[in-house]
Amino acid sequence: MEDVTFAINAPMPRKDPYGALSMPVYHCCAYEFPDHKAMIESFTGVSDDPDYSRVTNPTVIHFENIIKSLTGARDVVAFTSGMAAISAAAMALTAAGKKIVTSRHLFGNTYLLFTSTLKRFGVETELVDLTDLEAVRRAVDEDTSMLYLETVSNPQMEICDVRALAEIAHAKGAAVVADTTMIPFVFADMKSLGVDVEILSSTKYLSGGATSLGGVVIDYGTIEGFDYRLRKDMLMNLGGYMSPHAAYMQTLGLETLRARYTVHEDNARKVAEGLEDIIADMERSGKVEQGSMSVCWPGLESNPYHELAKRQFGGHYSAMLTLTLPDEESCFRFIDKLKTIRRATNLFDNRSLAIHPASTIFGTIDAATRAAMDVSDRLIRLSIGLEDSADLLADLKQALG
Ligand code: PLP
After folding, report:
1. Nearest CA to 80 among 244, 206, 227?
2. Does residue 82 have its Cβ closer than 6 Å to ligand 1?
3. 201 Cβ inside 6 Å of ligand 1
């Protein structure tokens, strides 16, 4: 069965007394048992009957199970946000005295989780250029617990060779963990590239138009004991389970994921190509200096990561793109002039969104670190939504004017 058919028609674990077509929201905190035996079996994991909604909830389990079927994973655990998923997975995989190898090109809070929060618990993070395989080979050693990457880094739009990195990491026994928020698992088979654990902010594509926060950890079953540590240790001891209401909305989001993503990406292509033309016109007419503006989207043939992205992600490129303008002041003027595109953070809302990352998401990070992370103050991040692409391009054109 095709993934979209399954996502829409995923069977419910029990027959609903009212014949509900979608999984009801079980908002209760606890569940009653017929006798002490059933109670013991649930609490000790002999049965999978729910006991307490911090660790197991029928609506959330249903959402997790659909992703499990779609990915063929050993287990899928849903969290209250992308960051909760990343921190739980990282804490399940690493320990004091161990090392994380990753890039400076990371989502800001992930960068701070590794370099600041986990550092206080004795975990070292070595930042390397993940596109430099020799540098990665030098960094990964026997103490490395995981190599962590983002499939398309936010906002630098860097793409690394996942299979090559996985070979290096696995040779030293390190887990390969990928943040795949940008390109959903139904389009890119990360397991076949050697990824052990996939994590995503389901706040983005999955939520179905920014309906709710969420995070998902997909465990491909290649790391011994990880499933137990994640579900029994991290989930139970740290909390952070997805709420039933969010799981309900994100289950609906899964049903429309393929349809929405197709439009997002198609619009991103039209906008990226349109922006290239607008920039070329502005340069030709002398309005801006040659080379002072550019658009970055891996689906463009001119993009340095195009071939790698095409090979790794099954011809998918996400709907985030960045626009480099002559200076910070022109970025602020551009942001203020937008009319259709909204001035907001987040990605893959139904609406198109624009943000100047350096002064906002990375605004509290010192300038030197920001520079090291290649978060330029000339950069605008655009998340392309589901509107008509001609309206988006008209808005971008007038704001650039
Ligand atoms: N990973 C990436 C690539 C992100 O872009 C984000 C948020 O923007 C996160 C993780 C964190 O997700 P959340 O905001 O759901 O905690």
Report:
1. 244
2. yes
3. yes
